[in-house]
Specification:
Blueprint: H1 12-24, E1 40-43, E2 46-50, H2 63-76, H3 91-104, E3 108-112, H4 115-126, E4 132-136, H5 141-150, E5 153-157, H6 162-172, E6 179-184, H7 196-206, E7 209-213, H8 228-231, E8 240-244, E9 254-258, H9 260-269, H10 271-274, H11 281-296, H12 299-318, E10 334-340, H13 342-354, E11 357-358, E12 361-362, E13 372-377, H14 384-400
Parallel strand pairs: 2-11, 4-5, 4-6, 6-7, 7-8
Antiparallel strand pairs: 1-2, 3-9, 8-9, 10-13, 12-13
Helix pairs in contact: 2-11, 3-11, 4-5, 6-7, 12-14
Length: 405
């Protein structure tokens, strides 16, 4: 009988590391969603109020997006059959890129298979070992990986510390090579907004490339959800805008916006673009429909922010630490409940789930040691009743576990 992988010793060190996580209480099993990604849903057989999803506007189940996906499948089939540079560029892919470029008020756009590959593929393509990256310490993992792949010299500035970023730029201003300043638009773990205008000032002062990752800002900030560039009115001052199609947009993928030359260069040199099969036509059609919804139904964003203000206020009144003490203060629908201890955090998340509220525990290495939290995210489609019931459960479990008084 063939030997199974599980019985072989070569990977036993991974089992040892998993056992360490279990001993610390931070090991987890994947939760399985059994129906729609919605404010109330069934996960692992339990009916729960879902405050963990990135589905900011509820577009995963929007009727226009469903119909767009079905129609594209009927017309074009289920897959593209190739990478974009061979035979996998369909007309609908070009239509999506044109749609996003117009929405973002830029010359051109390229769509990637995910937000992660958009970041990692772009940074590693446009920089090399003679160049320098000035990066916020809390930037997303995809930015960090892209920076490493580029082989550029990486300088990390303290979170949102403009003076420190300038110190680092001064250190390298006379060195050969390009300089890139990069920040998240909205930081995914704390929900605070990047200081884009001040970083744009630095980029212009020192002749650096300016790049922002707007994954959690697209569909949330700016006019009709155009992101931080629009929120701060710094159009024309950001060279590289990255966004996602898998959060507020409700589907899958990432994109990069900028000049025609930048996008043409990425068509030729971004490795994830060159070596990954393009999106199924249903996904491209869904994303086009999502941008049409953003333009035509701005009330969704108003509802999102109404729910956000209500939930933040009530969490604070209950006595939860929602940032602003030893962590950045949330300014967006991402509202962390800071617990600190990793085991207590994961236990809190599990107890909430038992009581009918789903919000995920997040511990090291996703966040630093001592900064573990459950992350809550509002959506436009949560009702006041759902949020009130979730708050009651949070209060009950938080008091029972000694997290709040």
């Amino acid at each position: 009988m063939p030997t199974t992988t599980a019985s072989r010793p070569q990977l036993s060190y991974l089992t040892d590391q998993m056992n360490e996580l279990k001993a610390k209480g931070t090991h987890f099993n994947l939760r399985v969603l059994e129906d729609e990604q919605a404010p109330e849903c069934t996960i692992d057989g339990r009916h729960v109020i879902n405050i963990a999803s990135n589905n900011y506007l509820g577009l995963t189940t929007h009727p226009r997006l469903r119909e767009a996906a079905l129609e594209a499948t009927r017309r074009y089939g289920v897959g593209s059959g190739a990478v974009r540079t061979v035979a996998g560029t369909m007309k609908i892919h070009m239509q999506l890129e044109e749609k996003i470029a117009h929405f973002k008020n830029v010359e051109a756009c390229v769509v990637f298979q995910s937000g992660f590959t958009a970041n990692a593929g772009t940074v590693s393509a446009i920089l090399g070992k003679e160049d320098f990256i000035i990066s916020d310490e809390l930037n997303h993992a995809s930015i960090i990986d892209g920076a490493r792949l580029s082989r550029a010299k990486i300088k990390v500035f303290r979170h949102k510390d403009i003076a420190h970023a300038e110190e680092l730029l001064k250190e390298v201003q006379n060195e050969p090579g390009h300089k890139l300043i990069i920040t998240d638009g909205v930081f995914s773990m704390d929900g605070d907004i990047g200081p884009l205008p001040a970083l744009c000032d630095l980029a212009e002062k020192y002749g650096a490339i300016m790049m922002v990752d707007d994954a959690h800002a697209s569909g949330v900030l700016g006019r009709n959800g155009r992101g931080t560039v629009d929120h701060f009115n710094v159009h024309g001052r950001v060279d590289v805008q990255v966004g996602t199609l898998s959060k507020a947009i409700g589907a899958l993928g990432g994109y990069v916006c900028g000049s025609k030359d930048l996008i043409d260069f990425l068509y030729h040199r971004a490795r994830p673009f060159l070596f990954s099969t393009s999106h199924p036509p249903s996904v491209a059609a869904t994303c086009i429909a999502a941008f049409e919804v953003l333009e035509q139904e701005p009330e969704l964003i108003d509802k999102l922010w109404g729910n956000t203000r209500f939930f933040k206020k009530e969490l604070g009144l209950l006595g939860f630490n929602i940032g602003g003490k030893n962590t950045p203060a949330s300014e967006t629908p991402i509202t962390p409940i800071i617990i600190g201890d990793g085991k207590l955090t994961m236990d809190f998340s599990r107890e909430l789930f038992k009581e009918g509220v789903f919000c995920t525990g997040i511990a090291f290495p996703t966040v630093p040691e001592g900064k573990a939290r459950v992350r809550t995210i509002m959506s436009a489609t949560h009702t006041h009743d759902q949020l009130s019931r979730a708050l009651e459960v949070l209060k009950k479990v938080g008091r029972r576990m000694g997290i709040i008084g």
